[in-house]
Amino acid sequence: MLKKWFLTKNAFLSVKPFSALKDSFRNGYTSRHLVKDIIAGLTVGIIAIPLSMALAIASGVPPQHGLYTAIVAGIIIALTGGSRFNISGPTAAFVVILFPVTQQFGLSGLLMATLFSGIILVLMALFRLGRLIEYIPLPVTLGFTSGIGIVIATLQIKDFLGLSIEQMPSHYLEKVQVILTALPSINWADAGVGIITLIILTQWHKLRLPIPGHLPAVIVATLLSLLLTHFGYAVATIGTQFQYTLSDGTTGYGIPSVLPEFSLPWNITDPQGNLINWNFDTIQRLLPAAFSMAVLGAIESLLCAVILDNMTDTKHHSNNELLAQGLGNIASPFFGGITATAAIARSAVNVKSGGVSPISSVVHALLVLFALLFFAPALSYLPLSSMAALLLVVAWHMADLPQIIQLIRRSGRNEIAVLLVCLILTVLFDMVIAISVGVLLASLLFIRTIAEMTKSINNR
To answer: Among the residues of 231-358, which ranges form H helices?
Structure first.
């Protein structure tokens, strides 16, 4: 018993925060590295501002909560994490889990689920499960992400086309049916703004300019929206669709230009002003979603770290990264932030822009904070259809059709079956079922691989 306790204690002590930051400074951090981090952080921040708001809206909460997430979780996870290059914040992968939680439990329920997921991530780190998650097979992760991409794209059609839909149903096939029924209500002004945004986002790279396409896309979309509004066409914007109430009773439209306020997540009222009755039954209903958030966050953050390792010829600390993700998701809800994890697209931009340490992620978060404090009125003019266009591009990359085709061509029937099962479960049911079955399938595939390796060795 004493030996087991000692080993477990050593396992706990082996997980140390700030490992990536220490590695960066241990290798020699100069003013030239700082300049690189600042440039990379500003570049990623430009992308993160509209994307964070779009992801918050897609998750069913006001846009400022996405900015709060990028600020709070972005700084905490970067400084305490195990990857030098990960940029953390709200990500598209969580939308399919967060949106149903928001519909059922409101903002308070979403923040509590985020808090629980952070605790689960910390426990996963302390029990050193980081390396195990890295062994989840490609068909499982590709099935998840492709299914998530399909669901996200479906959810964005409403805002992209300006359809008159009061509330989306919970099941995917019902969502599709409601969207098809609402197609005659298309708002051509919203659709036009969304299409222009989509064209700029998909074609901007051909100009080979150093500025990310997200910035010119939302600027052009906003100007077009103002022009259409001037001529009497109705275009839905953040300012027309969202309003806020501050702690002092001040109300307004769009995004409040104030620092994220500290508040207890369980004391936040629902949209009708009612306080959720937090009892064991309510918490029990939230735990499956929290578990799914934790597992999905662990998979995405470590997958992102592995991709960045290959890009930079470095090595991340998996359990330390899980610990940081947990700490970030525990702290974020107390400042209005929703679930966060490492974002592959933004992290890749960080590397390509010259980022060399977690300082670039801190700079990115500070730029988001600067925009919140000084440009909130301007951000309120962003059209919802352009936000939807941003997520349609994200969804296309997540679906990763070329990689699916490649996997189908070179894999056996078992791998293809696992891919399709994970994809279909994610789309038609929910992520709780999909992740549970996916983890089970990953375990079975891992056992099968080990068995084949053992058999091969014994036959030699």
So the answer is: 238-241, 280-312, 318-331, 344-352
Look at residue 26 and give its three-state secondary structure: helix
Name which of 330, 358, 384 is nearest 187 in CA terms. 384
Residue 330's pLDDT is: 97
What 3-state DSSP class applies to 251?
strand
User: Binning pLDDT at 50, 70 and 90, where does residue 40 land?
Assistant: very high
Q: Quick check: 317 and 82 in contact, CB under 8 A? A: yes
Which amino acid is present at 315? K
Provide φ and ψ at 342, rounded to 5°. -70, 135
Query: Could you tell me the two tokens for 449?
Result: 């691989």
What is the C-alpha separation between 244 and 64, in angstroms, rounded?
A: 10
Share of residues in the chain with pLDDT > 90 (%): 55
**284-339: pLDDT as tens digits:** 999 999 998 998 899 899 989 988 988 888 888 899 999 999 999 999 999 999 99
Using DSSP, state whether 369 is helix, strand or coil: helix
Closest of 269, 349, 344, 280 to residue 43, by C-alpha: 349
Query: Residue 8 above 60 pLDDT?
Result: no
**Model pLDDT, residue 310:** 87
Residue 288: CB atoms within 10 A of its CB come to 17
Token output for 300: 């995405």
Q: Which of 351, 452, 419 is CA-nearest to residue 41?
A: 351
CB contact at 8 A, 15 and 129: no
Euclidean distance between CA atoms 68 and 73, whole angstroms:
8
Number of Cβ atoms within 10 Å of the Cβ of 222? 22
Measuring CA to CA, how many Å separate 141 from each of 99, 272, 297, 442? 21, 38, 12, 9
Q: What is the pLDDT of residues 421-443, one digit of tens each?
A: 889 988 988 767 777 787 787 77
What six digits make up the tokens of 388? 């939807």
DSSP string, 129-186: -HHHHTTS-HHHHHHHHHHHHHHHHHHHHHHHHT---S---SSHHHHHHHHHHHGGG-
Give the pairing type, strands 88-89 and 341-342: antiparallel
Q: Are 334 and 54 in contact (CB under 8 A)?
A: no
Quote the CA–CA distance of 98 and 332 in Å, as a whole number: 15
- Structure confidence at residue 1 (pLDDT): 44
